[in-house]
Design goal:
binds magnesium ion, 3-stranded parallel beta sheet, elongated, Tyrosyl-Transfer RNA Synthetase, 5 strands, about 375 residues, 2 domains, binds adenosine-5'-triphosphate, mainly alpha
Length: about 375
């Protein structure tokens, strides 16, 4: 039987992509792409969503579209295998969002914990833009328009996918089986679910300025690693340290393999041994940070190099995105035909409707 898996994910062009994106979703996307176990794969730049909380800063969004596209290509996403597109160029997504709005209550949206946190983070408590408040609905439309079955994302997206599933279910219940219920695909490694920022804060996020960017130079990255939040109780080298809540160890959990010890730190065989020593006391933060730096460098260097190559032909990237938008639009338009039919708003391509009305009025 043909594989019916359809994968869709995206990112907001509010900044360059960071290592939180990489471990939370990007790395997995590239693996999925290369495994080829899917019918279609879409990756999109959510510029319309980014505008919901940057409405007075369109230039920021415009500039970051190409940054995100470069990061995608640098990480290994291949436009031959994946359709890369820009959200705002697919008007069908607005149309579907509008219909979806009626399938959700205000109180249901207010319960979304990720949106609650984001509203507080942006100081929107007293005045929330309606578009921002309802972005989970628009996100449900993005997913449903492409009939996505699988959404690789970080844990903050779990409430969004639940919301999308509820909307699709309600749509199908009212209008008949038309759309597909999506499922989130979370990273397997717990440290990658929600990578903390370099300041140790809950989540590395472009909007918080606590990121290590994929395109950062080795120098910039070293400075950030060296000033990272660790364990405030670990004052002297001899003090016992804590690995829980220590961002350096969370990053090691996300990136480090046994081979890294073989290459960069032969004193230990694996991360457990290193953690044991740190917890016992007698191991300084700087040594751990240097090790982390080597690992991050090894991971990011090929990405940096590929980015430099792609930067040489920017028009080719816009061309590629334009083609991606055209392909994506065709797919979304086909879904919207089905949606309009199911919602009984397809007045002009329904011969039966006209015949019915002729009959209805002929008796009068
Ligand atoms: P913004 O601050 O503008 O919301 P962001 O850094 O949160 O930006 P998004 O574009 O909202 O990034 O997220 C894109 C994808 O990356 C989502 O799947 C999200 O779950 C994932 N992601 C973002 N930050 C992290 C993180 N720190 N750890 C794991 N996954 C993350
Ligand atoms: Mg976000």
């Amino acid at each position: 039987m043909a594989n019916e898996k359809i994968i869709l994910t995206g990112d907001r062009p509010t900044g360059r992509l960071h290592i939180g994106h990489f471990v939370g979703s990007l790395r997995r996307r590239v693996e999925l792409q290369n495994e080829g176990d899917y019918k279609k794969m879409f990756v999109f730049i959510a510029d319309a969503q980014a505008l919901t909380d940057n409405i007075d800063n369109p230039e920021k969004v415009r500039q970051n579209v190409i940054e995100v596209a470069l990061d995608y290509l640098a990480c290994g996403l291949d436009p031959e295998k994946v359709t890369l597109f820009i959200q705002s160029q697919i008007p069908e997504l607005c149309e579907l969002s509008f219909y979806f709005m009626d399938l959700v209550s205000v109180s249901r949206l207010q319960r979304n914990p990720t949106v609650k946190t984001e509203i507080a983070m942006r100081g929107f408590e007293s005045s929330i833009p309606v578009g921002f408040f309802t972005y989970p609905v628009s996100q449900a439309a993005d997913i449903a328009a492409f009939r996505a079955t699988t959404v690789p994302a970080g844990e903050d997206q779990r409430p969004m996918i639940e919301q999308a599933t509820e909307i699709v279910r309600r749509f199908n219940h009212i209008y008949g089986e038309t759309l597909v219920e999506p499922q989130i695909m979370l990273p397997e490694n717990a440290a990658c679910l929600r990578l903390p920022g370099t300041d140790g804060k809950a989540k590395m996020s472009k909007s918080l300025g606590n990121c290590i960017y994929l395109s950062e130079t080795a120098d910039e990255m070293r400075k950030k690693v060296m000033s990272m939040y660790t364990d405030p109780l670990h004052v002297n080298v001899s003090d016992p340290g804590h690995v829980e809540g220590n961002a350096v160890f969370t990053y090691l959990d996300a990136f480090c393999t046994d081979e890294h010890f073989d290459r960069y730190w032969k004193d230990y065989a694996n991360l457990n041994e290193l953690k044991e020593h740190y917890t016992r006391g007698g191991l300084g933060d700087v040594k751990c940070k240097r090790f982390l730096e080597s690992i991050l460098n090894e991971t990011l260097e090929p990405i940096r190099q590929r980015r430099l190559e792609f930067q040489k032909d920017i028009p080719a990237i816009y061309d590629m995105l334009k083609r991606g938008c055209e392909d994506a639009r065709e797919v979304a338009a086909a879904t919207l035909d089905d949606v309009r039919r199911a919602m009984k708003i397809n007045y002009f391509d329904d011969a039966e409707l006209i015949a019915e009305q002729v009959k209805r009025f002929s008796g009068q």
